[in-house]
């Protein structure tokens, strides 16, 4: 089969891009012809990658592209579909040129499925990562948020004005036109169905066990690892606070932060001003191929998201590498970080609980090894490659054209 994987950003930003790259390799190994179609300024890394220009520069053009239509994007995508003649198109992130992409697919008549990678279709607050750290009015956001609220009542007032019209309209159009959706977590599937999305299939992500090796000779040092976007909604500030407080009780504790984002410079300033550089290391963006090195020298991976994390792909990579994991109890994280079985959970609304769980993982004898052993088996049982591709290829073969 010739399969186009469409993602609206070519730059490697997070789980969606990681998943696309893994799909490309695996589908090719299975004898298919995958093509990654995206937008960006970078040159394509492979012949099978097609990088279209960015068509939404400027505030007005950005808004029109996202919530209405961009003719340049439409013609560019339509031209590629007519030229490539794919058997199916697999949509991933389609946030920036939604209606342009959907019209191009419909006009060419290509069968289509879409993986939903986050909650932005269901909750407009997902566009505002700075809401989640010491922001007045959001202390109980998790309790009040239904995730299908287009009003965004936890947003600043001026940010709410356009959302009821733009957000609902976009969600309705996608729900009506895309014939098949894929949710990588049962929690996301549940919320999509509550919001009126039909034909949602749950297909969990997969792990290539050969890629993530277990370092059985890992030294017993107290090294905490964070990998991901350095944003407030990822809980990075709560993690830093917890490690600083634990330094008094666990003198050799260290924190490695790997990733880029709007809060990286904020953290750099804090580390410098408070002289924390002897135990907090800010690595910045780390190439995906180099992440395994960080796993091998770390003991505990923390996924402290405050936001509804769709899944947390980084967590199952950590489990496959034999690292103890700690995660917040939001979104799809509890599906792989099963409390007291494969990892430890904490209440995302309670930063003090994060400190307690880190301390337990580092100091409670035998806990880490027990959890990692069960975690690695859980990965083999649930997130195995064969199971994933059997389901995915079956969906591709049964894909329908857009109505």
Structure write-up:
The structure is a single chain. This protein has 403 residues and is α/β, with parallel strands linked by helices. The protein folds into two domains: 2-206 and 384-401, 3-Layer(aba) Sandwich (Rossmann fold); 223-382, 3-Layer(aba) Sandwich (Rossmann fold), CATH 3.40.50. 40% of the residues lie in helices and 15% in strands. The protein is built from 16 helices and 14 strands. The protein has helices at 15-29, 59-67, 71-84, 98-108, 141-144, 157-160, 163-177, 186-194, 236-246, 264-273, 291-297, 313-320, 333-336, 351-363, 367-382, 385-397; strands at 2-6, 33-39, 49-52, 88-91, 111-115, 181-183, 200-202, 223-227, 254-258, 280-284, 300-303, 324-328, 344-346, 400-401. Strands 1, 2, 3, 4, 5, 6, 7 and 14 form an eight-stranded mixed sheet that branches. Helix 13 links the parallel strand 12 and strand 13. Helix 9 packs across helix 14 (351-363). The longest helix has 16 residues, at 367-382. The chain is globular. Residues 133-138 have low confidence and may be disordered.
Count of the domains: 2
Global geometry: globular
Low-confidence stretches: 133-138
CATH class annotation of the largest domain: Alpha Beta
Approximate strand percentage: 5-15%
Tally of helical segments: 16
What Rg is obtained from the alpha carbons, in whole angstroms? 21 Å
Number of strands: 14
Q: Report mean pLDDT, rounded to a whole number.
A: 87
Classified in CATH, the superfamily of the largest domain is Glycogen Phosphorylase B
At CATH level 3, the topology of the largest domain is Rossmann fold
Q: Measure the end-to-end span.
A: 22 Å
Structural class: alpha/beta
What is the second-level CATH architecture of the largest domain? 3-Layer(aba) Sandwich
User: Could you state the order of secondary-structure elements as H and E?
Assistant: EHEEHHEHEHHHEHEEHEHEHEHEHEHHHE
Helix content: 40-55%
User: How would a textbook summarize the main sheet?
Assistant: 8 strands, mixed
């Amino acid at each position: 089969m010739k399969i186009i994987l469409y993602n609206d950003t070519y730059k490697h930003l997070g789980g969606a891009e990681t998943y696309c790259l893994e799909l490309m390799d695996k589908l090719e190994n299975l004898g298919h012809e995958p093509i990654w179609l995206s937008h960006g300024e970078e040159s394509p890394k492979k012949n099978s990658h097609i990088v279209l220009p960015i068509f939404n520069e400027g505030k007005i053009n950005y808004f029109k592209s996202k919530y209405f239509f961009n003719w340049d994007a439409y013609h560019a995508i339509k031209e590629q579909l007519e030229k490539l003649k794919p058997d199916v198109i697999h949509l991933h992130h389609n946030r920036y040129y939604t209606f342009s992409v959907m019209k191009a697919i419909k006009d060419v008549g290509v069968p289509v499925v879409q993986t939903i990678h986050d909650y932005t279709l269901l909750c407009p607050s997902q566009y505002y990562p700075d809401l989640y750290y010491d922001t007045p009015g959001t202390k109980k956001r998790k309790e009040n948020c239904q995730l299908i609220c287009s009003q965004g009542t936890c947003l600043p007032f001026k940010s709410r004005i356009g959302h009821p019209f733009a957000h609902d309209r976009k969600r309705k159009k996608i729900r009506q036109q895309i014939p098949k959706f894929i949710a990588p977590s049962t929690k996301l599937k549940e919320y999509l169905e509550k919001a009126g999305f039909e034909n949602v299939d749950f297909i969990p992500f997969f792990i290539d066990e050969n890629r993530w090796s277990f370092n059985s000779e890992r030294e017993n040092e107290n090294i905490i690892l964070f990998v991901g976007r350095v944003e407030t909604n990822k809980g990075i500030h709560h993690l830093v606070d917890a490690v600083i407080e634990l330094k008094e009780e666990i003198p050799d504790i260290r924190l490695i932060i790997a990733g880029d984002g709007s809060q990286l410079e904020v953290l750099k300033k804090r580390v410098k001003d408070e002289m924390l550089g002897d135990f907090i290391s800010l690595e910045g963006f780390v190439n995906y191929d180099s992440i395994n090195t960080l796993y091998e020298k770390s003991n505990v991976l923390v996924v402290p998201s405050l936001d509804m994390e769709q899944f947390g792909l980084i967590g199952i990579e950590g489990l496959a590498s034999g690292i103890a994991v700690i995660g917040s109890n939001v979104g799809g994280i509890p599906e792989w970080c099963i409390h007291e079985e494969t990892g430890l959970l904490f209440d995302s609304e309670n930063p003090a609980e994060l400190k307690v769980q880190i301390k337990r993982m580092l100091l409670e004898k035998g806990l880490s090894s027990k959890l990692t052993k069960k975690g690695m088996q859980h990965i083999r049982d649930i997130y195995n490659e064969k199971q994933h591709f059997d389901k995915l290829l079956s969906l591709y073969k049964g894909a329908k054209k857009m109505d």
